[in-house]
Amino acid sequence: MDRRSFLRTSALGGSAAAATALATPALAQGKRTLTLVTTWGRGLAGVHDSAQYCADMITAGTDGQLTVEMKAAGELVGAFEVFDAVTAGQADMYHGVDYYFVGQHPGYQFFGSLPFGMTALELNTWYYHDGGREFHDELGEIFGLKSFLAGNTGAQSGGWFRKPINGPEDFQGLKFRMPGQGGEVLGKLGVSVQNLPGAEVYQALASGAIDGTEWIGPWADEKAGFQEITKIYYTAGFHEPGPGLSLAMNREVWDSLTPSQQAVIEQVAIASNLWTLTLFLKNNGAALERLKSGGVQVMEFSDPVWDAFGAAASEVFQENMSDELYKRIFDSYQASLRSSSSWIQQSEGVFTRQRNRVLG
After folding, report:
1. Could you tell me the CA-to-CA distances from 13 to 5, 34, 97 in Å, in that order?
2. 302, 168 in Cβ contact below 8 A?
């Protein structure tokens, strides 16, 4: 029995099973209702907005021939259940970040963000013009999905801590929330890594269930309220320099759509990628200033800490190289990163350095 057949005949838990009748595309006079489930709690700044943008624009772009009903995390299935729900046909599509699903295949890490990986611009270059999109599709074929990048948060922060991190030894025994291979990196530094959905992070930090957390960046973090709990904030992290968000559709549902409907969904995903990135960039600077005015200490990790991150990341990469597809994606990703980064550093990098020097 292949994975798709198994998932269709397996229970996904009460919440997913109850969703079956609701999630099946409703047909009425040529119109269909598609159910979009997300990894985001309703109202989470930026990421929930990105999912809503996709739902609204697909509905509008198809003149209502496709109506997308969005269900936030927990409303139909849990945040970490959306991948299997869509693969099994319990829901039609999901919006989320694919590194939540490295348990299904480690290659999904690349379509969120690799530790010490690509910025948003570099990721888009690889994805649209240097082989990334084809790898996303190859993974999707395994699991019965058709996937697209459909958002980006821009560079994410290093996180919130109850005490400063002066050296790598300060991670030993720390209970910290970080998903994906970023969490695996921290695990090698002695961290007790917690993988929590975004909607659960505030309460875990407030209760002391975790000692610290990364989330997204100043705007989303301020909206989440982490500054009410601790004032120590590291604004640059190793783990997500430009993480992509994904829109993934059950492949049988995708194949049943008309070419024009498929084109609308693909173009909406591209538009959402840009729209979401600029939404975060627009809001992050002002939010950081508000956080600082409220007493938040903005900090940077020391070079020895960054070195420890790098050494641990290299170990994590090597541990996954036995997977042939992961290795092929890694090699493609790194080759594109070297190429695009080299030009960016010699063009935009020089310009921004001189702009800041001349204009202050």
Report:
1. 17, 21, 21
2. no
The residue among 29, 68, 94, 92 whose CA lies nearest residue 264 is 68
Closest CA to 4 of 143, 146, 145, 147: 143
Q: Give the span between the Cα atoms of 296 and 138, in whole angstroms.
A: 44
Q: For the domain made up of 3-152+242-282, give the CATH fold.
A: D-Maltodextrin-Binding Protein; domain 2 (3.40.190)
How far apart, in Å, are the Cα atoms of 322 and each of 28, 140, 180, 310?
48, 20, 18, 20
The tokens for 309 are 């991150």
- Helices 132-143 and 120-129 cross at an angle (nearest 10°) of 70
End-to-end CA distance of the chain: 64
Give the pair of three-digit tokens for residue 233: 């904030």
What interhelical angle do 259-293 and 47-61 show, nearest 10? 150
- Tokens in use for 16? 């997913």
Q: Is the whole-model pTM more than 0.85?
A: yes
**Chain segment 123-165, per-residue pLDDT in tens:** 999 999 999 999 999 999 999 999 999 999 999 999 999 999 9
For the stretch 154-200, pLDDT in tens is 999 999 999 999 999 999 999 999 999 999 999 999 999 999 999 99
* CA atoms in the 13 A half-sphere facing the CB of 211: 14
Which residues have a Cβ under 8 Å from the Cβ of 294 and sit 6 or more positions away?
227
Given phi > 0 = left and psi -120 to 50 = alpha, else beta, which region is 131?
Answer: left
Q: Which has the closest alpha carbon to 74: 47, 45, 41, 36?
A: 41
Cα dihedral 250, 253, 254, 255 sign: positive
Phi and psi at 262, nearest 5°, equal -60, -40
Q: Where are the domains of the chain?
A: 3-152+242-282
